[in-house]
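Encode chain A's predicted structure.
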Amino acid sequence: MAMKLCIAVVMDPIETINTAKDSTFAMMLEAQHRGHVLHYVVPGSLSIRHGKSSATLVKIQVKDDKYHYVSFAERFECGLTEMDVVLMRKDPPVDAQFIHDTQILSMAEAEGVLVVNRPQGLRDFNEKLAALLFPQCCPETLVSRNVTQFKEFIRIHGDVVAKPLDGMGGKSIFRIRQGDSHANVILETLTAGGALAMVQRYLPEISAGDKRILLVDGEPVPFALARIPQGDEFRGNLAAGGRGVGQPLSARDRDIAAEVGPWLKQQGMLFVGLDVIGDCLTEINVTSPTCIRELDAQFKLNIAGQLLDAIERRMDRK
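Encoded structure for chain A:
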């Protein structure tokens, strides 16, 4: 691509990342390799000035080095219209501050900036609820505030997983079996204050891994990272101690991607992570999906390159 893009990255503090596992870092390395100019958005600095989206930016350079991976220039205030692309890569929780940031980024989008992923989608698509837009792909699920309804669901299915709608990394996910003496306190905790929670039929296929399938502009990467539970842990999340093992997509994985991918592309979700256990879709991760570095290392891929290709195509069309 002939043009040089100015790219701003909204993320959690860059000083705390693990470069060997950080997908945002992979994106920055690839963008820099292509000659694009990287800017780091100082956390908490998105703002509206004189009716325009703005932020405090730092021009940065990155290097694939475990300890000395980023160098900073001086900070400066800048309207986001000075950028061509904003990568919104802040981790959940999707709380009020996250929503407010996406509202500022929607303003930037209206001003002509390409924001990846699209801010409206980040607001609209709760990562657990969005999967239920494709019920043909999901296990039996109940979303409710009603403990009595949850108990009936447990009675019917016998073995379920219960979780909050706003968690990540396996946090506050519980397995409940019929007759479990802790069921009441778990359900009361998850629904405290009138919070919605989710229960799903337990999928024994979790023993083979919770597969992360990455979609780039609606198309699946041909390999998934199966996050396999270890020891007596039933959760496969890497943050919960799961072991990541790459594997080719199955026919069912591809079917699920074909169901979901075109819709995500239409919604402006250029980089998405699907979570699949066995033959069932459990989550659609749109905020800051990971696993680029692990899959690249295992299969000699360049997933960030695919994403930059998609971004550059969109900029060409603009």
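The chain has a mean pLDDT of 95.
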